[in-house]
Design a protein that fits this description.
Helices cover 64% and strands 13% of the residues. By secondary structure, the chain is α+β, with helices and mostly antiparallel strands. It folds into two domains: 88 residues, no CATH class; 187 residues. A four-stranded antiparallel sheet has the order 2-3-1-4. A hairpin with a 5-residue loop joins strand 2 and strand 3. Helix 2 runs antiparallel to helix 9. The longest helix is centred in the middle third of the chain and has 43 residues.
C-alpha cells in the first residue's frame, strides 16, 4: 500500500470519528436538551424562586463602607512635628493597612466568614488576609480632601455587626498605640517654642526682632488650644453605608447550566459506548480480559 493511500485512510478515519461524535450528540439530543433544561429550571427555582418564599435562605453579600474621622492638626504645629506625624490621616491609614495589624484584628472579629466556613487556625489568617486585599474584599484608603480614612469591605449580610465591632477595635488599637507618642511630640513642640520665647524676652532690647518671639508664642498658644480640645486620634463617624446585593445568582445559574450540558453529553457518550460494547462480542471479550488482567494476583 502506498504512502498516499495510507494518508487517505487515516484522513477518512478521522472524518468518520468526527461524524460519529456528532451522530451520538444528535441521537441523544433529547436527553442532552431535556437534562440541561431540567437542571437550569431546578437552579432557577433554588436561586430565584425559593428565596422569595423563604427570604431568610437568600445568601446576599453586603458592601459596607465605614468612615473614620481623624483629628486635624494645625499646620503651625504639624510642621514642627517629626515627619511621621505631619499628617495624622496618613499615620492612621498606614496603621490600618499594616498586614500584621489586620491579621490580629480580623482574627478577633472576622466578618468575612460564612456560617459554613471552617474555623481558621492562627497561621491561616496570614494568607486569608492577603487574599482579602488581593480580591478587593477589604479596601482601606484616605479621603483626598477631608481628614478621613475609608474602610470598605464585602461581607455576608448577616456579619455587618461583626464588621462594626472589627472597625471599632481597629480604631481603639490605633488610638492607644499612637496617642502617647503623638501627644508627647506635640507637648515637646510647645516646650521648645516656650523656652525659645523666654530666651528672646530675657535678652530683648530695642534692636531685637519681636516678630520671631510673637511667632513662637503663637505656636505655644495653638498647642495649648489643640490639647484643650483634643479628644482622640480617630473615631468612627455615623453608621456604616451598606449596599446589599444577591451573591452572584446569575453567575451561578450560568455555571450550573453549562456544567449540566457537558454532563449530559458525557452521559450520552457513555450510554452509546455501553450499547456498542453489548453489540460487539469482540469488544466485550477484550474488556473482560482487561478486567481480569487488572486484578491483583493472589499467591
Amino acid at each position: 500500500m502506498s504512502e498516499i493511500e495510507n494518508k487517505t485512510i487515516i484522513k477518512d478515519d478521522d472524518e468518520i470519528s468526527l461524524i460519529d461524535l456528532f451522530s451520538v450528540i444528535i441521537r441523544y439530543r433529547l436527553l442532552i436538551i431535556c437534562g440541561t433544561v431540567a437542571a437550569a429550571v431546578i437552579a432557577v427555582l433554588h436561586l430565584f424562586v425559593y428565596p422569595i418564599i423563604f427570604p431568610k435562605t437568600l445568601s446576599r453579600d453586603s458592601t459596607v463602607e465605614y468612615r473614620v474621622s481623624v483629628t486635624p492638626v494645625p499646620a503651625t504645629i504639624s510642621m514642627e512635628l517629626p515627619a511621621k506625624f505631619t499628617s495624622l490621616k496618613n499615620v492612621v491609614n498606614s496603621e490600618f493597612n499594616d498586614v500584621f495589624f489586620l491579621v490580629k484584628e480580623i482574627s478577633k472579629n472576622n466578618p468575612f466568614r460564612n456560617d459554613n466556613d471552617k474555623e481558621l487556625f492562627s497561621f491561616e489568617f496570614n494568607s486569608f488576609v492577603k487574599d482579602l486585599i488581593k480580591d478587593d474584599k477589604l479596601q482601606i484608603e484616605t479621603v483626598p480632601v477631608r481628614d478621613e480614612v475609608i474602610i470598605k469591605m464585602t461581607i455576608p449580610e448577616e456579619n455587618i455587626g461583626i464588621a462594626t465591632d472589627m472597625v471599632d477595635s481597629m480604631i481603639d488599637s490605633v488610638n492607644t498605640s499612637i496617642k502617647n507618642v503623638f501627644l508627647r511630640e506635640v507637648e515637646k513642640v510647645a516646650k521648645t517654642k516656650l523656652e525659645t520665647y523666654q530666651e528672646i524676652t530675657n535678652t530683648f532690647s530695642e534692636n531685637s526682632n519681636i516678630t520671631d518671639a510673637q511667632a513662637y508664642m503663637l505656636t505655644v498658644r495653638q498647642v495649648d488650644e489643640f490639647l484643650k480640645n483634643y479628644t482622640c486620634i480617630s473615631e468612627r463617624v455615623f453608621e456604616p453605608f451598606v449596599i446589599i446585593q444577591p451573591r452572584g445568582r446569575v453567575k451561578k445559574l450560568a455555571i450550573i447550566t453549562l456544567a449540566a450540558f457537558f454532563l449530559f453529553i458525557f452521559i450520552a457518550f457513555l450510554i452509546n459506548a455501553i450499547k456498542n460494547i453489548k453489540n460487539d462480542p469482540e469488544a466485550s471479550s477484550k474488556l473482560k480480559a482487561a478486567w481480569d488482567n487488572g486484578k491483583i494476583v493472589r499467591k
